[in-house]
């Protein structure tokens, strides 16, 4: 039994030779080496518990030592498993109890004070030593479960499940739970249930005065109206596109597909910016009206209509992606059957095809709804007085109000909306899906669209597609003129201002204003992308291929975090990680973690889809051929998963670069990101630089996509992988 | 090496796939798990492999308790229904896979893999991709891949179900020949009783998660212990007959007007369920001699090697196969039915 031995020793080493608590200056300075025993800041776990009065650490270390003893005893397999389970489980419980129970000011809650008396000690966030001990205990627990026959008797699987589950609990569930707690607390952290009701009942949230005339509606209503409109609009447009792409002989179908890639690699507010350039006060339309008819230019684009338009442009491609699968999924055989039953094309379309698409349409609507309420970039750029929940939360945290409780209550409301839509979506899609794509080859040709429907679809979709391209074009040109609306002289000034590199006596100086945030973004996204892909695919592999207790819960948790709006995640991270036991606010680590856990669910989805196309018996063949689980993963599963790996890596990187809503709360002067930098430029009216920077980001992401494809090998991004079955691929 | 199951149970949530199964597979024999789909035979096989761990009970391989060991830690290999050849590796790489994972060096593994491919008659196919092989060749690669590891137990999960009828017979003969030549311990799963009878030393018939009966092919066919077995192992006509003991080892069975004497030591006098094999029924144009059963042909089909008849009689509708194709009887003909003693079985309930 080498694994329990190795982990016990590793854990104990970490408890003796590494500082238990987090260091202000980080580990790389090396100053801690001399203070491992004597300095209270630098001391190891063992030293803390003996020499510095942190007696509560001693039992944790003792249970780790007990694990070592069990590992050394010559015991029967299952007996050893049971003993190891007891020792490591107890250690974990004690670890969690002390971490949550004792904080910066002694006991963390009043009732502990009352029960045990004031504690005259404090502890800061967990550092390298503490974290390693926690990892060692978790690993020992997984090994123990595998020894007792859990997880198919495989320690690797057990460890992987524990890793994924623990990280989701720590970095998704715990922060969201913190929002809930925060919403009940007043400024001093006291627990006041009535406060939440006060905060939620505020008139600013629920007022309906805009309907009765006079005054504005509450932000909750604003959010809902916008989301309903956006869901309906994107679904209608997406359906029109999907029908044209699959059921007509429209000549430029491929170009339509390009439209779906654009919003993925575009920072979410670029469309908003482009709308300002066209319809804004000094935009083209206003200028033309003023020039031709003398109409005074107005700010009419700011408000509901602006945000709605921007979201419609930004999210229609998403609806298109959802619906193209649905439209393709309607079995041609059913349509052919209908036609042989005396139904003409229009009757077939309206009585067979369309009803079959209904669950898909509901799905697309809810996706549009969720995207809209989660959107932060467009409302903040174009919203004007029209506040929605995500921007309101931002101002509660960042603005002059600095009201964390209110932010938490609003976040809770936003979360409720999102989860409500999410559950509705699962119910609709889960119970009423006419899954018409079977594994069997479905012969038969899709029926062409009846003329009436085709004409309607083309009249809606094609002008819209043209307009979308036009907007992107304006956005591009906007970065190449001096001052939009006043001076259209072509210039590269904005690019120079952002990305200047100067030659001086001291060598190259990256003097452009954007370089700092640009490199930070690239660095953090490059760290996060492989981790996101790895964790996502690992989770997908577990969910598709392994049977274990709690599998359904784990799957549900990963999918749930997909529905949590970025703004909520951002606020939650601020609340959860600026106090011990995990104190990482203001570091690069919190941004990377946010990237990973924000984007992982998509990796899980993609991985699960790809993996369920690979015959399970391939894995099993490898297992019965002496390939252990990790070897099976490396030699059999991953080579067959290349397209999914490319997808997860690209997505992990691109989303990290383009995200705004979550990280806007986490950036600092030291770790500023590209998108948050651009947003600030936009708010200050510096459109030229913002546009130049956005274009540079789009180019960067295109380059990265090409590089990742080249590195991983296969060029199959976006195409559906063929069914892979053992021996007959 | 031997395989032993002691009271093994496997539950999935509330559903019970295997409900308390005990058996022993002797070393060097080929034992088949036979049963209809959903009877738990594949789950049982996968528990031997370690791909599924039991909820209760113990599993021993070669006398060693392997109940909670994972597939990798057990000395077994498996041939899958879909063959499960790795599509991104050549034939040689596929056969090498297990050897490489067991820590053999590349050259050594390749030598043994070539040896294994020669054994299944596929020398010269090393560099092909699995997709370039026919179904039968893929099957042989899968067998070679499992064989080269010299496992203590070799498992086959419905290995022939993706082949056409002619190839199926050839492959099952090859598998049996290989097993006997190398003295392998093999556990074989199938739902086809003919295939099971052709390859097995012993057959374990399962139904609804339990073992219905186990024994040699001849035992099971000629002495089925339950009505399920009589139906499942070959065709049979269920009927009610009255039993009268003639001697300590002989009874008379009366079906309508027909009466036959068969060997039996246990059954008491009175009514009993009787199974009549279709090949034990002889059909003559009426009128027949005394002791035959008068009847009328309801359906007659010509099948080349034999005739099939449905006959309405006083003992119910009987299904009969008759090798005499040169003088077929037409539907509607009055016939006399006589029964051969070896095809009449008293089934205990």
Q: Count all strands of chain A and give the number.
A: 8
Question: Ends of chain A: how far apart?
Answer: 40 Å
Number of domains as seen in the coordinates of chain A: 3
Quote the distance from N terminus to C terminus of chain B: 36 Å
Provide mean pLDDT of chain B, rounded.
90
Strand content of chain B: 35-45%
Would you tell me the structural class of the helices and strands of chain B? Answer: alpha+beta
The biggest beta sheet of chain A, please? 2 strands, antiparallel
**Largest interface chains and counts:** A-B, 33 and 38 residues
Model description:
The complex is a heterodimer of chains A (729) and B (349). Chain A folds into 3 domains: 2-148, no CATH class; 229-438 and 445-470, MetI-like fold (Orthogonal Bundle); 516-674, MetI-like fold, CATH 1.10.3720. Chain A has a two-stranded antiparallel sheet. Chain A has a two-stranded antiparallel ribbon with strand order 3-4. In chain A, strands 5-6 form a two-stranded antiparallel sheet. The longest helix of chain A is centred in the last third of the chain and has 31 residues, at 515-545. Mean pLDDT of chain A is 83; it is low at 435-442 and 714-729. In chain A, a hairpin with a 3-residue loop joins strand 3 and strand 4 (487-490). Chain A has helices at residues 2-17, 45-51, 57-72, 77-101, 110-116, 128-147, 155-184, 193-201, 203-206, 209-212, 219-247, 253-265, 270-279, 284-293, 304-329, 332-340, 345-374, 377-382, 389-398, 404-432, 451-478, 493-499, 515-545, 551-563, 566-576, 588-611, 616-624, 629-640, 642-658, 674-683, 687-712; strands at residues 102-103, 106-107, 481-483, 487-490, 502-504, 507-509, 578-579, 582-583. In chain A, helix 1 (2-17) packs antiparallel against helix 6 and helix 17 packs antiparallel against helix 20 (404-432). Chain A is globular, with a radius of gyration of 28 Å. By secondary structure, chain A is mainly alpha-helical. With 349 residues, chain B is α+β, with helices and mostly antiparallel strands. Chain B has 2 domains: 3-230, 3-Layer(aba) Sandwich (Rossmann fold); 235-347, OB fold (Dihydrolipoamide Acetyltransferase, E2P) (Beta Barrel), CATH 2.40.50.140. In chain B, 24% of the residues lie in helices and 37% in strands. Chain B has helices at residues 41-49, 91-101, 106-119, 135-147, 165-182, 193-199, 217-222, 227-232; strands at 3-12, 15-25, 30-34, 56-61, 64-65, 76-79, 153-157, 186-190, 202-207, 210-215, 237-247, 250-255, 258-263, 270-276, 281-285, 293-302, 307-313, 316-322, 334-339, 344-347. In chain B, strand 12 (250-255) and strand 13 (258-263) form a beta hairpin. The longest helix of chain B is centred in the middle third of the chain and has 18 residues, at 165-182. Classes of the chains: A mainly alpha (729), B alpha+beta (349). The A-B interface holds A 77-78, 146-149, 152-154, 615, 617-618, 620-629, 631, 635-636, 639-640, 724-729 and B 49-53, 67-73, 76-78, 80-88, 97-98, 101-102, 130-131, 133, 138, 141-142, 145-146, 149, 155.
């Amino acid at each position: 039994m080498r694994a329990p031995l190795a982990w016990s020793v590793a854990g104990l080493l970490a408890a003796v030779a590494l500082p238990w608590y987090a260091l202000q200056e980080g580990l790389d300075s090396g100053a801690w080496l001399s203070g491992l025993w004597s300095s209270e800041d630098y001391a190891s776990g063992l030293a803390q518990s003996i020499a510095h009065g942190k007696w509560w650490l001693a039992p944790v270390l003792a249970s780790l030592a007990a694990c070592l003893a069990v590992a050394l005893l010559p015991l029967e397999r299952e007996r050893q498993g049971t003993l190891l389970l007891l020792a490591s489980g107890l250690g974990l419980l004690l670890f969690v109890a002390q971490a949550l129970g004792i904080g910066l000011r002694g006991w963390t809650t009043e009732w502990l004070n009352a029960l045990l008396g004031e504690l005259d000690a404090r502890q800061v966030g967990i550092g390298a030593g503490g974290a390693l001990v926690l990892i060692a205990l978790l690993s020992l627990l997984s090994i123990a479960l595998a020894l007792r026959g859990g997880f198919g008797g495989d320690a690797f699987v057990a460890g992987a499940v524990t890793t994924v589950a623990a990280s989701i609990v720590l970095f998704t569930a715990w922060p969201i739970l913190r929002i809930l707690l925060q919403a009940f607390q007043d400024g001093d952290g006291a627990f006041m249930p009535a406060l939440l009701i006060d905060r939620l009942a505020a008139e600013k949230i629920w007022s309906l005065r805009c309907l009765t005339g006079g005054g504005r509606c509450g932000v909750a209503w604003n959010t809902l109206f916008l989301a309903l409109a956006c869901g309906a609009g994107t679904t209608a447009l997406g359906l029109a596109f999907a029908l044209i792409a699959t059921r007509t002989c429209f000549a430029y179908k491929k170009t339509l597909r390009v439209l779906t890639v654009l919003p993925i690699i575009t920072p979410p507010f670029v469309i908003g910016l482009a709308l300002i350039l066209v319809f804004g006060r000094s935009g083209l339309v206003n200028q033309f009206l003023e020039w031709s008819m003398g109409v005074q230019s107005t700010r009419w684009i700011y408000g509901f209509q602006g945000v709605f338009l921007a979201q419609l442009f930004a999210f229609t491609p998403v609806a298109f992606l959802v619906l193209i699968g649905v439209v393709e999924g309607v079995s041609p055989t059913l349509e052919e059957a209908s036609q042989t039953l005396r139904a003409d094309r229009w009757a077939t379309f309206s009585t067979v095809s369309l009803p079959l698409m209904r669950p898909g349409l509901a799905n697309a609507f809810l996706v549009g709804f969720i995207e809209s309420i989660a959107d932060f970039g467009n409302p903040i750029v174009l919203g004007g007085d029209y506040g929605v929940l995500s921007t309101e939360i931002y101002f509660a945290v960042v603005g002059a109000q600095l009201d964390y409780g209110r932010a938490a209550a609003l976040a809770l409301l936003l979360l409720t909306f999102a989860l409500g839509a999410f559950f509705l979506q699962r119910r609709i899609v889960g119970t009423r899906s006419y899954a018409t794509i079977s594994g069997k080859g479905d012969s038969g040709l899709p029926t062409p669209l009846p003329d009436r429907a085709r004409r309607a679809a083309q009249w809606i979709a094609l002008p819209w597609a043209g307009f979308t391209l036009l907007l992107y074009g304006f956005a591009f040109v906007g970065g190449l003129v001096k001052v939009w609306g006043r001076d259209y002289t072509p210039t590269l000034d904005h690019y120079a201002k952002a990305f200047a590199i100067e030659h001086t006596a001291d060598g190259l100086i990256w003097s452009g204003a954007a370089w700092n945030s640009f490199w930070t973004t690239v660095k953090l996204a490059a760290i996060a992308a492989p981790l996101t892909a790895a964790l996502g695919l690992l989770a997908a592999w577990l969910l598709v291929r392994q049977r274990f207790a709690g599998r359904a819960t784990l799957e549900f948790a990963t999918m749930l975090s997909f529905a949590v709006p970025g703004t909520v995640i951002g606020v939650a991270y601020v609340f959860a990680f600026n106090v011990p036991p995990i104190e990482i606010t203001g570091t690069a680590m919190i941004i990377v973690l946010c990237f990973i856990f924000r984007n992982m669910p998509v990796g899980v989805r993609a991985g699960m889809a790809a993996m369920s196309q690979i015959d399970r018996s391939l894995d099993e063949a490898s297992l019965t051929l002496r390939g252990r689980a990790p070897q099976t993963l490396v030699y059999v599963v991953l080579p067959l998963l290349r397209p999914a790996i490319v997808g997860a890596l690209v997505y992990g990187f691109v989303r990290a670069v383009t995200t705004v809503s979550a990280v806007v709360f986490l950036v600092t002067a030291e770790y500023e990101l590209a998108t948050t930098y651009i947003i600030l430029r936009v708010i200050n009216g510096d459109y030229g630089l913002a546009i130049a920077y956005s274009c540079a980001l789009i180019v960067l992401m295109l380059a990265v996509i090409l590089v990742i494809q080249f590195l991983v090998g296969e060029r199959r991004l976006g195409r559906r992988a063929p069914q892979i079955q053992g021996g007959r691929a | 090496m031997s395989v032993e199951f002691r009271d093994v149970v496997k539950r999935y949530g509330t559903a019970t796939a295997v409900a308390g199964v005990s058996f022993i597979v002797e070393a060097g024999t080929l034992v088949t798990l036979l049963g209809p789909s959903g009877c738990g035979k594949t789950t049982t096989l996968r528990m031997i492999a370690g791909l599924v761990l039991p909820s209760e009970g113990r599993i021993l391989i070669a006398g060693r308790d392997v109940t909670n060991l994972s597939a990798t830690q057990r000395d077994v290999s498996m041939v899958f229904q879909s063959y499960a050849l790795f599509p991104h590796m050549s034939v040689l790489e596929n056969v090498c896979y297990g050897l490489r994972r067991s820590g053999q060096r590349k050259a050594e593994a390749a030598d043994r893999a070539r040896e294994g491919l020669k054994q299944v008659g596929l020398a010269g196919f090393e560099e092909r991709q699995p997709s370039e092989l026919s179904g039968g060749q893929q099957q042989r690669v899968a067998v070679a891949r499992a064989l080269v590891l010299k496992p203590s137990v070799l498992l086959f999960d419905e290995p022939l179900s993706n082949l056409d009828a002619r190839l199926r017979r050839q492959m099952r003969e090859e598998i049996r020949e290989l097993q006997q030549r190398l003295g392998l311990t093999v556990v074989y799963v199938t739902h086809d009783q003919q295939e099971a009878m052709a390859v097995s030393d012993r057959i374990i018939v399962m139904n609804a998660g339990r073992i219905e009966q186990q024994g040699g092919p001849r035992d099971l066919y000629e002495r089925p212990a339950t009505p399920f077995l009589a139906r499942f192992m070959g065709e049979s006509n269920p009927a009610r007959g009255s039993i009268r003991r003639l001697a300590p080892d002989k009874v008379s069975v009366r079906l309508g007007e027909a009466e036959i004497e068969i060997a039996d030591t246990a059954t008491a006098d009175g009514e009993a369920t009787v199974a009549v094999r279709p090949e034990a029924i002889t059909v003559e144009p009426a009128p027949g001699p005394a002791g035959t059963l008068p009847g009328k042909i309801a359906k007659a089909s010509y099948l080349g090697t034999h005739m099939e008849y449905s006959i309405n009689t006083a003992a119910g509708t009987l299904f009969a196969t008759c090798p005499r194709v040169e003088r077929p009887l037409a539907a509607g003909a009055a016939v006399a039915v006589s029964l051969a003693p070896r095809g009449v079985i008293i089934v205990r309930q």
